[in-house]
Request: fold
Amino acid sequence: MNEQATLKSKEDMTQDDIRNFEIRDYLRLDLFPHFMCPGCGHGIALRALLWAIHAQGIDKDKLAIVSGIGCSGRVGTYIDANTYHTTHGRPLAFATGLKMARPDLHVVVITGDGDCLAIGGNHLIHAARRNLDITCLMLNNEIYGMTGGQVSPTTPADRFTTTTPAGNMEPVFDACRLAEAAGAGYVGREVTIHLPRLRDIIAEGLAYKGFSFIEVMSDCTEVNGRKNDLGSSPEMVLGQTRAMRPSEYDNNVVDHPFRPNSMNTGVLVRSNRPEYGTSYRNMVDKVQALQQKGQK
Amino acid sequence: MTVQQNVAQATPTINLPTINLQGNHACALGAVAAGCRFYAGYPITPSSEVAERLAKELPKVGGVFLQMEDEIASIAATLGASMGGVKAMTATSGPGFSLKQENLGYGMKAEIPCVVVNVMRGGPSTGMPTRPAQGDLMQARWGTHGDHPVVALTPGSVEEIYQQTARAFALSEKLRIPVIVLFDESLGHLEETITLPDVTEYENTIRKWATGKPEDYKPYKADADGVPPMARPGDGYRVHTTGLIVAEGGFPTQKADVVAPVMKRLLDKIEINNDLVESFEDIDCQDAEVVVVALGIVGRSAKKAVRELRQQGIKAGLFRPITLWPFPTKSFRALTKKAKYFVVAEMNAGQLILEIGAAKVDKQSVSGLNRYDGEPISPSLIKQAVKEVLGHE
Reply:
């Protein structure tokens, strides 16, 4: 907590300061060793997030990390900030209340593919529609890891899971397209192997005034990779990277399959839709001004 | 906040405004008067007027009103706002109250103050949305999973809705717990001319905030009152809040020797503050042969019935819990020592009667007067029931 003084604000940050990121400044070291399995991509995602927070010069005291349930939900526990580990699927709803009540806080949601797209799908749609200033990091490991490896809304076709013993028959969600369609002002996706790129996408999301949605393609070696002969972590990560198309959304492509087996990465949406908290507070100012007029 | 003060209405002074108000609007205004500055809700009959009134009132005082995407999001946002340090509320009715149960339990476990209003309608399921009922009394006690502390208030008039909603905020802040306010559709839509009670005391009641050095602060180390001071985000404490069982330091544990005292403190928290929490109305219970037990709108019918029975020479009394949970068992026992019969009148198939059966000490007979057809219980029905147990007529 004393190291707080050494952390710089965004204005004072030089490129060297950004490069000299020390992750220990942002972790609750007394909680280590962490619970994540060997080879899990969530640790890289956590590093990218903390590096982005560092690059943005965000004060840890003003940082609120809101997470749900699952492997992704536990990641936030290790961050030395105001951390809220809420109920399954609901972190965006908790975060909405927190951000509206405390606009001075930087509110970051860490969620997973099950948390965000299945049980909490409705909250994602409406958080994107409202465009409240929240950064949502969805760690997509394509599986329910914490419960032992059940099929999730992003498990690819034919994948074996404990609840799809003959292979997955259900089509998957393209979470970024969903967020975009619902109105998210900033949308991005990256794989964990491109750490600096992932960091920059998150950093831009943190700076964006509105709802920013970032999908991190994580890997679950233990209950997803092993069951499907996807190899160890490096092989899984490389396989994932091959499946991506690092490009802007290509509007000329007419045959976007509903079950995408390759997805775009990078910043996919940048818009300047009005931020909801600002709109709300403008309304409050108007109401209060009218009221004062009426009282006179 | 003794029992007497809670029950006796504040003596009306000339300064207090007298207005015509609907129960649901009284709930909204009572909340604002108590310092509520955040509301998140979802439209549901018969509680929508609470939200509608707050949508109008909260911006005037710089507060936040949010209509969320569903009932679950509403209580989640309410808890989120309270985590940020703002007095917050949500209101709903039966089906919505069912949906809110998981997060209600989260609030009880993580000790996040807020107020949850349930304007009860006929159930089960979609039931009778525009008819009154008292079918959610046990749901308020046991609705969320696991052992948990609970505080639920059951006002019985429009004025009391205003007062008890305000008091709910004070209790939730003081005890760090979501407080449930239960009243039925008929009270929610009842219009009465009332004198707004003075709730300054409730408005001034604010949770204990953490003070001192952050490195010495333990988020779940309680004071003598069983309630730990809360850390506000931004104040430098950077604590962890979770639905998992945690040790005093705030981080998860499953060690039996750590869990046991943590759970015990959580479950005993309300009990050791009973003086603060307990409230009820007692009419002639001390010497009554028959004690009618009723709450909310039925308590009002019962009051009339008991008065008329007394005029007829029948020793009847009324025990009306205002704090339903925890049930004021000790006071109930002390007041009803002479009773031979209990008549429990309620607009459900028999829920409060279970508590009376457990609370009585002697072999008094307990009979229920139950109605679950969407109609209120009239004074004449109560009089009849009392006379039946006495063998009159």
Notes: Chain A has one domain: 2-295. The first strand of chain A starts at residue 63 and ends at 67.
